[in-house]
Amino acid sequence: MSIEKPSVDVVIVGFGWTGAITAMELADTGLEILALERGPMQDTAQTANYPNVIDELEYSVRGKLFQDLSKETVTIRHSLSATAVPYRQHGAFLLGNGVGGAGFHWNGMSWRAFESDFRLRTHYTERYGAAFIPDDMTIQDYPVSYAELEPYFAKWEDVAAVSGQAGNVRHHIRPIGNPWEAPRSGEYPLPPLKDTYGAQIFARASAELGWQSFAVPAANASAPYTNQYGVRLGPCNFCGFCEGYGCYMYSKASPQTSILPALRQKKNFTLKAGTHVTRVVTDSTGGMATGVNYIDPQGQEVFQPAKLVILCAFQMHNVRLLLLSGIGHPYDPVTGEGVVGKNFAYHMNSSVNVRLPENTQLNPYIGAGAAGTAIDDFNGDNFDHGPLGFIGGASVYHLRPGGRPIQQSKTFKNEPKWGKGWKASVQDGYQRILPIYAQGSVMAYRNVYLSLDPNYRDIHGQPLLRMTFDWHENEFAMIKHAIGGAKKIAHVIGGDVEVNLRESGSHFDTRAYQSTHTTGGAIMGDNPQNSVVNRYLQTWDVPNVFVMGACVFPQNIGYNPTGLLAALTYWSVEHIKKLYLKNPAPLVQA
Amino acid sequence: MSEHASRRRFLQATLTLIPAVTLAPRDVFSATPENRKISIAKPAARNSNYVPRYFTEDEWQFIHVAVAQLIPADELGPSAVECGIPEYIDRQMQTPYAHGALWFMQGPFVTGLGPELGYQQKYTPREIYRLGIEACNAWTKTRFGQPFDRLDQSNQIKVLEQLEADHITLGEMSGSLFFAQLLGNTKEGYFADPIYGGNKDMTGWKMIGFPGARADYMDWIDHPNERYPLGPVSIDGNRS
Predict the structure, then answer these.
(1) Are B191 and A507 an interchain contact pair (Cβ–Cβ within 8 Å)?
(2) pLDDT tens digits, residue range A227-256?
């Protein structure tokens, strides 16, 4: 028999970026808002204080801030006919845990998306013809345009104190900044971070090749900044401990750094940590949510009634909650029918390493999560895809997130892994191996999706989420093209060059870290047959359930997802306030 | 006498002192009862008074000898033993990590689906060491009549290479799993903050030039390609 709590107006499931944004933006309505976060309370003073946070073993190696996989993980298989096995140890992606979610331990790369990303199928059809898109590629347009989202990107960038150099302000392309970016209404809130030595080398080589490089937009504050919530961020001191860590300098944006100090002052807001939501409860018709069930810190089952349920858990967890709650029709890859779990996507990465001259002092420990320089000449549709035959692109960049010795002391792959040879190569490489990365989009495919696993369960006895995913030829061709650009930069820089290209035919490898940029599974679209949520991120089937996060991306972009998912959240909450609260009903007619 | 001639004379003189085992074909499988008798057997150097809490005496001996091969003493710095790596690994064995508590450890454990799907075995780090060391010693006893730590150095290296390449199976466990556990923990201990028992005197950090817990380069971002002037500090405030 479960405990029933008094009803609230709004329950928010998960307290990472989207949960914090949603709660903060709704707080001025006066509604009673309850946020349920399954992990522990975490803040800078307790969880990321100096010098204890400067501990590579505890944080990024043992994963202090990562999801406890012993309790719950996902299963993974490469094809529809295979049996999925659990993701038993953290590898390819690093799921977050606790207050702040993955937004506490992220790097802070904060991008917008290209205008063409929002109308991808239409754009490629117009420019290259409908036959250019493979039959098994299930990409679709976002049901919202860049122009509609622009004010929300700007709002997010203020809250996160993003440091950068605008390259396109109101269609005026500048000789500095990113010439390919979608038009901005104004400057970044802060000037770009200073260039590391490696970034300077990358920028010089790019310029020689005629490519305009620019500072990666960084949610690592380049100077003190007070955001619109009145929260003060400190200046980044390039400590080199972003990803896997909280920021002891209060420079890297995070839900607890950038929003919670203001949000916790709101009397109508409550955050309960250690509460694990197991499902959204719907009424007898299945057409309205009545609240959520959760397990409290004492292990008791609780029913929390609510008028409005907003799913703000991580991408995979939102999809799993929808499946466990029976909201929306699960996707069937054989028939192509159903929508929940459809169009799961990811990123594809490769890299090039350059060995700079002896006695170079890259000082790799002088870094920040988003301290980097990039070019976008290989991203989006910024080049003619016609003769190349693939869709999508990649950002090509040098990033210096730090020089943490266990995980970031580089050697070339043909060098010894141990013994005297290893000592010599790790010492030699540390100061002079310069990496260049390519991180590219992954399209959606008919045979890639998320579902509930038939064999494995979490500690509460609920089925794990199952990921059916492998690479497709389109992405191999995309990354090979982008790495071609990286190689050119490397050769202009000079020195030995090592290419680490993900080769056609290789399988998705769960072991080595790639990125935590998983997307899709609860995608947005213009009708209930092609999507789980409408353009306001409201579920088609249950109008008082909204879903936030990268799970709504119809397919992934060639950029880190946080800027886009944050903008979409601001967009959605604005329309919840303007439209839904006045008339709690479907905001788009099916 | 030219330097070259001098070096040659030195080598000739030295060769006569080398025990027969190292002149035998360089193949770990070729050891015979004859050369076993003369293989060098000396206990590994101990560098602290630390008393292990998890490892048995035999295991402790194995760990010392193995990590000293993975990170040996040379002109770049002292060995893993002198850096406290055995202590580091033993102390890690007391953590949730070593009990597999950070991993999803529910069965069924389905193996053989391809390495890309990641770790799919049932062993915790503690078990990997316990089973791995015992089976490795059993293997070397069969081949050489000696446990691993009593092999001469070249054979120790060869056994490690064979483990790494998965040419030795340790009961039901792959040799490469055991090797990866050992090498991974050894490098962790070499580069982790000294509070965990390894990286004594910040030796690992000094070798590559990492300033440790300083973590404030507000000034040095303005000095591209210039050597950072300060040595490392540890979390507990020690300098070296």
Answers:
(1) no
(2) 999 999 999 999 999 999 999 999 999 999
DSSP percent split of chain A into helix, strand, coil, nearest 5? 25, 20, 55
Q: Which pLDDT band, with edges at 50, 70 and 90, does A1 fall under?
A: low
- Is the pLDDT at A392 greater than 90? The verdict is yes
Chain B environment of A507 (Cβ under 8 Å): 114, 116
Candidates A85, A195, A511; nearest CB to B110: A85
Chain A residues in contact with B164 by the CB 8 A cut-off are: 417
Q: Does the annotation count A347 as an active-site position?
A: no
- Under DSSP, the state recorded for A144 is S
Q: Indicate if the pLDDT at residue B6 is higher than 60.
A: no
Options A385, A472, A481, A517, the catalytic residue: A517
- What is A501-543 written as a DSSP string? ---TTPPP-SSS---S--B-SS-B-SSTTT-SB-TTSBBSS-T
Task: Answer yes or no: is pLDDT of A446 > 80.
Answer: yes
Residues of B in contact with A508 (CB under 8 A): 116
> Which residue in A56, A69, A419 is closest to B192 by CB distance?
A56
Q: Does B20 touch chain A (CB under 8 A)?
A: no
pTM of this prediction?
0.94
Contact B152, B69 (CB under 8 A): no
Is A83's CB within 8 Å of B205's CB?
Answer: no
β-strand pairing of A33-37 with A269-273: parallel
In this complex, do B192 and A403 lie within 8 Å of one another by their Cβ atoms?
no
How far A67 CA lies from chain B's nearest CA (Å)? 9
Q: Would you report the helix, strand and coil content of chain B in percent, each value rounded to 5?
A: 50, 5, 45
Angle between helix axes A197-208 and A473-493 (nearest 10 degrees) is 100
Burial per residue of A150-176, b for 16 or more beta-carbon CB atoms within 10 angstroms, e otherwise: bebbbbbbbbbbbbbbbbbeeeeeeee
Residue with token string 């035998």: B24
B122, amino acid identity: K
- Report the 3 state secondary structure along A428-488: HHHCCEEEEEEEEECCCECCCEEEEEEEEECCCCCEEEEEECCCCHHHHHHHHHHHHHHHH
CB-based contact B218:A221 (threshold 8 Å): no
- Exposed, middle or buried: residue B237 (CB in 10 Å: 0-12, 13-18, 19+)? exposed
For chain A, the C-alpha Rg in angstroms (whole number) is 23
Name the residue among B77, B101, B116 with its Cβ closest to that of A508.
Answer: B116
- Provide the token pair at A216: 């990666």
The answer to whether B208 contacts A78, with C-beta atoms less than 8 Å apart, is no
Candidates B208, B142, B194; CA nearest to A408 is B208
pLDDT of residue B85: 98
CA pair distance A448, A504, nearest whole angstrom: 17
| Tokens 């000592």, located at residue | A423
- Residue A354 has φ and ψ, to the nearest 5°, of -120, 130
Residues of A in contact with B97 (CB under 8 A): 62
The model's pLDDT over A211-222, given as tens digits with 9 standing for 90+, comes to 999 999 999 999
The one-character DSSP state at A218 is: B
